[in-house]
Amino acid sequence: MTFKKILSLVLACCMIFAVLSLTSCGDKSGNENKNDDENNNPAGNGGGEGTENEDKTYTVTVVDGEGNPIEGVKLVITDEKTYPTATTGENGKASVSLPEGNVSVMVTSVPDGYLKPEKVSGIYHAVFTNGKAELTITLEKEASNTVTYTVKVVDQNGDAVVGIDVQICYDGICAKAVGTNEDGEIKSELAPNTVVDVKLYNLEGYTLPDPVNGDYHAVISEGETEVTVQITKN
């Protein structure tokens, strides 16, 4: 074999080796880039999916029949997974933060003189609907079991007389005498349809009116709530 043939054979081998080395390096680089992509986004989901809903502020406003805010109403505002409590402030509002979703309200306590609202869903008194984050609950006042009875004392000119002691009696009970105020009145809370007898004392400078029922000078009949008694100035 001549020298030229040997040299050609050596050069051919070197070229084959160089091509194989470049191919191996190119495969390795491609694999590394692919692995980097998988590490940055292992799920292949764009990196933005799968996160939980953020909390949302839910606000309840409690008012009376005239729209006035009611303070001190205790509530449970719940997504039925957690049950945070809240109490309305001077503005009648109470708020909690919960994940956005189905949220209901239970009124657990109301101030004296008010009634709990009727339930709208199971044990709940209100429900946030259509994605809303605010709602209003209206409380009705309790029906009063008493009526205000008024006795007014005037002179012969129809002017109010201050400081006349007035005693009212009803159902066999006589209350302590009370002096008339600047309007010539005394007031008392009694059950509806109570018959009230009226006595007057300390009428210095005035003449007592004639009795109308034994020793009494006036009567509030059943179904009525006030009476005016006229006295005469001496």
First-to-last CA distance: 165 Å
Strand-residue fraction?
A: 25-35%
Q: What count of domains describes the coordinates?
A: 2
CATH superfamily membership of the largest domain: Carboxypeptidase-like, regulatory domain
Total strands: the figure is: 17
- Could you report the average pLDDT, rounded to the nearest whole number? 83
What's the overall geometry? rod-shaped
**CATH architectural type of the largest domain:** Sandwich
> What helical percentage do the residues reach?
10-25%
Q: What is the alpha-carbon Rg in Å?
A: 45 Å
According to CATH, what is the topology of the largest domain?
A: Immunoglobulin-like
Largest sheet: 5 strands, antiparallel
The succession of helices and strands, N to C, reads HEEEEEEEEEEEEEEEEE
- By CATH reckoning, the class of the largest domain would read Mainly Beta
Unreliable residue runs:
22-51
Based on secondary structure, the structural category is: alpha+beta
Textual characterization of the structure:
- The protein has 234 residues and is α+β, with helices and mostly antiparallel strands.
- The protein folds into 2 domains: 55-138, Sandwich (Immunoglobulin-like); 147-233, Immunoglobulin-like (Sandwich), CATH 2.60.40.
- The chain is 16% helix and 34% strand.
- The chain is built from 1 helix and 17 strands.
- The longest helix has 38 residues, at 3-40.
- The chain is rod-shaped, with a radius of gyration of 45 Å.
- The chain starts with a helix and ends with a strand.
